[in-house]
Amino acid sequence: MNIENMKQELEQSHAQLYQLLIELEQSHAQLEEVQKEFEESELLRKQVQREFEESKLLRKQMQIEMEQMKSHFEHTQSELEQTKLALEKMQGELDRYKYREAIASETISEGEKKYKQLVWDAWRAYQNEDISQMIDCLQKSLKHTSLSRTKIVSNWVKSWSEFSQMKGEKFEIHRLNRYQEWKKLLRRMTVVKPSSATT
């Protein structure tokens, strides 16, 4: 092999080496780009993960706050209900006092005044759905009137209708028939006492 051929082969080898170096540099550059993209995606993944954790904490915090608000609302609602009941009770006491003052000026016996007050109290108990208290008041009222048993029942109904009208309500007597205590009281009042046997 002559020198000229060796020189050509060396130049070709040098050119190939140079080409390999260029390709190596390009591969290295591509590798760095891939590495950079990987690092960026890793940063992005960590950021997304962090935001996800933050959103979880925020959701939990909001849930706690909602539970607290719900508890506060229920407590406030309970207080309002208690206040409403207290006001209704006070209103009932005020109405009772006004009615007692009204019948105090009437020219009727103390017994009749007591009777009227007990009928009022029975009506108030019925309004509050305290049926046992209503029956108790009605039974007590029997001792303070000279009306016949049939007239007494009619008087109760008439009085209750008037009381309801004063409050802008309508008294529905048929609703009383839902209560067994009322039915029993009416039955006791309509039982005719047997006359004493003559010897």
Tell me what the structure shows.
This protein has helices at residues 3-104, 110-127, 131-141, 149-166, 180-190. It is mainly alpha-helical and 199 residues long. The protein folds into two domains: 9-86; 106-189, no CATH class.
Structure characteristics:
about 200 residues, mainly alpha, about 80% helix, rod-shaped, disordered C terminus
Shape category: rod-shaped
Largest sheet: none
Report the sheet-strand fraction: under 5%
Number of DSSP strands?
Answer: 0
One letter per element, helices H and strands E, the order comes to: HHHHH
Segments where pLDDT lies below 50 for 5+ residues? 195-199
Q: What is the first-to-last residue Cα distance?
A: 172 Å
**What is the domain total for the residues?**
2
Report the mean per-residue pLDDT as an integer.
Answer: 87
Structural class: mainly alpha
